[in-house]
Amino acid sequence: MRIVLFEDEHVERLYPITVSRPAFAITCGGQRLLDLLTELDADLRAIVRPYLKSVMEANRPGITDTASLDDSPWLLVNARLAPTIAARESLRRLIRESKPGRWSVDGSLVAALIDRATAQRLHETPAQPLTEQVAHLEAFTATDELTLLAYPHDVLQHHLASINDHLEERISRGEYRQLQDGVFVAPGATLGDYSVVDTKHGPILLEEDASIGPYCFLQGPVWVRQRSRVIEHAAIKDKVVLGATTKIGGEVEASIIEPYTNKQHHGFLGHSYVGSWINLGAGTCNSDLKNTYGTVKMQYGDEKVPTGMQFVGAVIGDYSKSAINTGIFTGKTIGVCSMVYGFVTTNVPSFVNYARLFGQVTATPVEVMVATQARMFARRNVEQRTCDIQLLHDMFDLTRGERELGSVPPEPLSL
């Protein structure tokens, strides 16, 4: 069996999260769909947007090679599938039943089980929309377990609903030492002196070489990934996942932080998604609750979308930065490679310096971000590859329309 993840025409609705990564590489509930499906014991491949292909190949060689065919069937899976354990098990049943067909939800293709002939046509006519190429298959309605991430706030919603399940399964399968009731640690992980833990609502899991400083408060469920560091006096609580090699301080609640991001100093982060290679300056805080206590509506381009959620914080794209004492209003998005200052009262385009409080919103040249990336990578002993630089250029071109719509002047910025 071969599983082929594909990105459909709606992947752009997940911007700014999916500007820099395929939808199957979004952390949600502590897991990425890419990692979750490796447990199905199948040959895993992916069809991604062209500009992401070189980075994906560098990170996981062979992942985008769908040319080689064999006699086994293919299971096509939408990259926007919410990475839940229930979804994985539902796909496992489809594989076991081996019944060709296509499964959809709200008009979007979720999965399709295809034979070798259909797979051959996909390879020979890649420009034809995938939904058209599988239209001849018998149509089925997807089960409730197979749900798609439609907008960025859906990532947060599914994260909150699924983190306990993911943690419990991880703990049951791993080799962890139970440090105290509900606190599980991998080799090399440490819990600082005088720390206080609360596991009434879920476990706390510290992966290999993760460290918690002294005088911290941790309220489960919390998942701290490899080599991450929680600074002394921090409060990490209620459904937080800290990605690998992050450095986190202050108060964090119900949030996802992707790898290599720093939030080292005091300040509140709540009900938010924070991408990779981000730095939040000291005193940066976001609001995750309206003053009216009503449900939050998110502005995505020209569309205003009700979330149905009372608590929604910020969605911050990869490589963005905040200055000291930055305040981010409820339900705001910040694009990739942007730098924000003062109060963030509106959505922020990608590749801008946003200081609207001071009357300034200017474009950030891509060369500045290339130089910044080199410095950040060097600090973490990560090699800056040609594909990493090219991705910045591609993202800059891809998001040009955001800056034009926002009437952002292309003012140069010093390296």
Level-2 CATH architecture of the largest domain: 3 Solenoid
The top-level CATH class of the largest domain is Mainly Beta
Mean pLDDT: 93
CATH topology annotation of the largest domain: UDP N-Acetylglucosamine Acyltransferase, domain 1
* CATH H-level superfamily title of the largest domain: Hexapeptide repeat proteins
Note the overall shape: globular
- Helical region count? 9
- How much of the sequence lies in strands comes to 25-35%
Question: Uncertain regions: pLDDT < 50 for 5+ in a row?
Answer: 409-415
Name the helicity range: 10-25%
Largest sheet: 9 strands, mixed
Report on the architecture of this protein.
The chain has 415 residues and is of the alpha/beta class. It folds into two domains: 2-141, Spore Coat Polysaccharide Biosynthesis Protein SpsA, Chain A; 152-405, Hexapeptide repeat proteins (UDP N-Acetylglucosamine Acyltransferase, domain 1), CATH 2.160.10. Helix content is 22%, strand content 26%. It contains nine helices and 35 strands. The protein has a nine-stranded mixed sheet with strand order 7-8-11-14-17-20-23-28-31. α7 (366-379) packs antiparallel against α8 (386-398). The longest helix has 22 residues, at 152-173. It is globular. The model is unreliable at 409-415 (pLDDT under 50).
Write the layout of secondary structure elements.
Layout: E1 2-6, H1 33-37, E2 43-47, H2 53-59, E3 74-78, H3 85-97, E4 101-105, E5 108-114, H4 116-124, H5 130-133, E6 139-141, H6 152-173, E7 177-180, E8 183-185, E9 190-191, E10 196-198, E11 204-206, E12 211-212, E13 217-219, E14 222-224, E15 229-230, E16 235-237, E17 240-242, E18 247-248, E19 251-253, E20 256-257, E21 262-263, E22 268-270, E23 273-274, E24 279-280, E25 285-286, E26 297-300, E27 303-306, E28 315-316, E29 321-322, E30 327-328, E31 333-334, E32 339-340, E33 343-344, E34 352-355, E35 360-363, H7 366-379, H8 386-398, H9 400-405
Parallel strand pairs: 1-2, 1-3, 4-6, 8-11, 9-12, 10-13, 11-14, 12-15, 13-16, 14-17, 15-18, 16-19, 17-20, 18-21, 19-22, 20-23, 23-28, 24-29, 25-30, 28-31, 29-32, 30-33, 32-34
Antiparallel strand pairs: 3-5, 4-5, 7-8, 26-27, 34-35
Helix pairs in contact: 7-8
